[in-house]
Amino acid sequence: MEILNRNGKIIPQLITKGEERKPWDAAHDYLDQEIIQNNNPEYVEPNIRHELFSAKDPEVVADGNHAALESFNESEYLKNWPRPQEQKDRFVWHLNDQFSEFKKANQKLLDKVRDPWIKVGHIDTGFQPNHPALPKNLNKEKSRSFIKGEEGKPAVDIASGTSMEQDGHGTATMILLAGNAVKKIDTEGNYEGFVGAAPFAEIISMRISETVALIQTSTFVDALEYAISEGCEVISMSMAGAPSKAWANMVNKAYEAGITIVTAAGNSWFEGPRKALPKRVLYPARWDRVIAATGVACDNLPYILEARLQKKSEGGETMQGNFGPADVMTHALAAYTPNVFWATMNDKGKFFRLDGGGTSSATPQVAAAAAIWLTYYRNEINEILKKHPGEKWRKVEMVKNALFTSADRHSYPLFKTYLGRGILKADKCLSVPPSNENLVKAKEANVNLWGILDLLGLLLRMKGDSEIDEVRSEMFQTEILQQMHTNPKLQKFLDYKETDLWTEADRERMRQELLNSPTVSDKLKEYLKSE
Question: Buried b / exposed e across 468-499, counting CB within 10 Å, b at 16+?
Fold first, then answer.
């Protein structure tokens, strides 16, 4: 088990012996060793696998990755969700004026800026080099893989040959973000023109996983640090997982650097064996310094079954978007999904399907709108930042203000509950100029919940009132938060706001569930038994 420091870096030459050790016990062992040898109690955490579902599970269908269909027709749309009506350029319906308005927004940008350009970091599974719709400004030289054994290599998505391994997930989300112009032969005669929401953007691809179902803590940290060093202004990541201290620290670093991060709210299942997975917004999207991308269908109703007053799946597709709790939805924004196009590659020469879904499809749209707005108002933004040296975070808050202020809040009355700030409108967003007024710095990303502190008998630190206890407290808190995402019996606690205190009954329920869990560290159980 690899151990990470608080910045997400693997501690050199430390791969603990005895892989049977629970991940967090390995971290506590290292902390104890450091205290004895160097009197240096610094936070460490295991390099965990954020695997909220198995990509190999035959009953899991995620993000539109069904087996490729023989023909390109109405039957390709997901039956359980509404499909777009006949209209001009139906193939890219989500870009049209009555939906996300990307066609109008890009034309308005070109009218103002002769040669628009912005650098966008795309964190996903990489890209398949031969797809005809790859972004025209994909920087292949700068693109990198951060997967163990592939470090430093190009971010090329290596096909496994099975749809359940999420082949091409990065290619599909990248093309939604900034796809190039295609010919009718590429779309089986359905469409000719640009397919990306921000086709002018320079894309730096960062491969952090072989599948959307699994993220290693350290790969996201390394990718985001690389994006900062390369000068990316926007990050699009159609992935989600449980929180880690290293993730929180890197999100804070990116925010302070003025980078707008958009990540998927996450997906859940309303039927079948995956019904027990979390239905609340996952991390990093749950943090205030990140924009959480939620989903809205083409009928302007949420991509969530209960909001549509449905009781069961009619078409067999059981995936839906995540939402809540209420305080998280204040930094969430909805974009159109499902039944958007989904780029694919197979041996029949087929390059697209129509059944793209999940919040994976919504995320690159929100990121593209941020990129267009930043490019449109670049000079004005720089003038404001000149007056506030060292406060690049203001740039992120200006982007959020424009996206949230311009969002459609009239099409669906319960938007605050299920969508967040509303439905993305890229063209209306350009009518909101940058302003320095009323900007509030977002709360730091962290792994603290007052309920957990209360559970552990803490206010700010453990009762020993020492530096060692404070570090141990942080480690316990992170482990418990991770347990809340992976243990179905603890997911009710994800409904609590960060500052909520739990009832005495809930504290005891949490304590007992942690003590009964076979995956909880022995160190945490030892402490909980002593309380």
Answer: bebbbbbbbbbbbbbbbbbbebbbebbebebe
